[in-house]
Write a structure and sequence with these properties.
The chain is an alpha/beta fold. It contains seven helices and eleven strands. The strands form three sheets. It has a five-stranded parallel β-sheet, with helices on both faces. A four-stranded antiparallel β-sheet has the order 6-7-8-9, covered by helices on one side. A hairpin with a 2-residue loop joins strand 8 (175-178) and strand 9.
Length: 258
């Protein structure tokens, strides 16, 4: 893959280096490294310079096909910044192809396409964040750093059975029962209940549910969470059973047997 340093893009960088450059020896932690996939050469250059000024190294490609050449998924980059509209191959198909290869590098879509449907498609394609242009340079750096922190998460201890009162969720068989009676849940309802039970007794916010259950890194400005919580509550309380999912005003939701 041909990677362009900031100087090759047309201006001398303040701190950005090409992808293959070796940093000078230092005791400080290695700088974050991002790949910017953006066909607007000047805009890509400005991003690289702004990130470099904040200690984040950047390499540039200006074509979707170049972004699929060897070098993206080998651990060289901590975060990918991808435009939607690219020559050669659009950003959505680029990220889909990378995810199909097993590339798990966090990816941020940075694009002018800002409709809710566009955001949803970006996240469904494998994006971890979706930002509409323009974006403040400090916010962009903060989002890159946040995505890099998510890259490696400690594995949670695997618990095969989750309970709350007479409610039981079997994670091996993916079955749910209350009072010994089976409850049929849709896949998304199951994931929602599982996450609530993993946080049993602790409030979970709407934002946490959007990120952990739906995989959204932004608020879609819909009542998707409230709708699914309502449906799940109804299924868990069939036959007059006491409610287990409670709303905490201003904090979110909690599942507990009270």
């Amino acid at each position: 893959m041909m990677l362009l340093s900031s100087s090759e893009a047309g201006r001398r960088p303040r701190r950005a280096r090409p992808a293959g450059a070796t940093p000078a020896p230092q005791s400080a932690p290695a700088a974050l490294r991002v790949l910017i996939v953006e066909d607007d050469v000047e805009a890509a250059q400005h991003m690289a310079d702004d990130l470099a000024a904040r200690g984040i190294e950047a390499a540039l490609v200006h074509d979707g096909l170049q972004a699929l050449e060897p070098g993206v998924g080998d651990g060289a980059f901590d975060v990918l910044i991808v435009d939607r509209m690219l020559p050669g191959r659009d950003g959505l198909s680029v990220l889909k192809a990378l995810r199909q290869r097993g590339v798990e590098t966090p990816a941020l879509f940075l694009t002018a396409m800002g409709a809710v449907a566009d955001r949803v498609m970006g996240l469904q394609a494998g994006g971890d964040d979706y930002v509409v242009k323009p974006i403040d340079s400090e916010e962009l750096a903060a989002r890159v750093q946040a995505l890099a922190r998510r890259r490696v998460r400690p594995a949670a201890p695997e618990t095969t059975a989750l309970t709350c009162g007479d409610l039981e969720l079997d994670r091996l068989q993916r079955k749910v029962r209350r009072g010994g009676q089976p409850i049929a849940l849709l896949p998304l309802e199951y994931r929602l209940l599982e996450f609530l039970l993993l946080s049993r007794g602790q409030p979970v916010t709407r934002k946490m549910l959007l990120e952990e259950v739906w995989g959204f890194r932004f608020d879609p400005r819909t009542n998707i969470v409230e709708t699914h919580i309502s449906r799940l509550r109804a299924k868990l309380s069939e036959g007059g059973a006491a409610p287990l999912i409670h709303t905490i005003r201003g904090a979110g939701y909690v599942i507990q047997d009270v």
